[in-house]
Structure formats: C-alpha cells, structure tokens
Design brief:
154 residues, 2 helices, mainly beta, signal, elongated
Length: 154
Amino acid sequence: MSYRRPLLALALGACLLPATSWAVGPGTGSQSQFNVRIGNCMASSLEVRYRLDSLMGEPIVGGSYRWNGDNRCDLPSSTVIWLKVQSGSTYGYVRLDPAVPGANRGFGYNVSGSPEWDEAICGFNGTRRTGCMNSSAAKSLWKSGRVTGFSVAW
C-alpha cells in the first residue's frame, strides 16, 4: 500500500505537465534569405518563422513569412515556402502555405494544420508535393530532423 501514493502522485504530476513537454518535431525557429526573386518581385529580405511539432501523435505545421521590397510589387498568390527538414543525409520538405503578405507589412496570416503523415515530408516541384515519404519514414525524420533551410516556389 505504501507505493500507491507515489504512483498516484506520479500519475497526477504527469497529467499536469504542459502538453508541449510531449511534443516531438523539428521545432520552432526562423530563417532569413536576402535578394530573393519571387515571381516578378525582388525581395531584399525574406524571413520565415515556423513551428513543426506534434500533438497526440499527429504532425502540426505552422508558420508564415514576411518580405521587404518594392511596395508596388505583389507576390504571386500561389507563393509557398518549402522548409527543408534534415537528419544526417536524409531530408525532405514541409510545405508552408500562409496568406501572401504585402511588401514591408509584416507576416502573412496562417492557421496551423495537421497533414497526413504520408503527405507531411515530401519532395517538391514548384508548388506541388512529389515523392512523399511513407508514414514510418516521415515520423522518423520528424523526430530526429531539424530545419536546415528553405526554398520559395510560386
């Protein structure tokens, strides 16, 4: 009987931990590139912020970007960001598709999403996913990988 209380306390304590303590994923961060051509516009700077983690075993993808450049130039509405997730020599890309922001106006609007595992980490051709990893490979890279760069497509 004396060990019931410690087990109960441990179980209750585990329930009170923040949900993020169990989150697994490439993480949260930001990266920048300079002098990037996007459609007919030239971005003097492009900053991407991202959050890649998981909730209840499912991937959570969130993020947005801002760019600085000519106020008279509008980025194509199809503009997407491909985050490169890498662990060792294994890598794939995660698609960020927020609302396209105007030049010099801050970050575009975005709502986090949860893609299916077999569509979470892929290759890409322009704005389309190609050669996605199967669920098992995607989960493995999600747990061990980190964002090492990004590409812009439109």
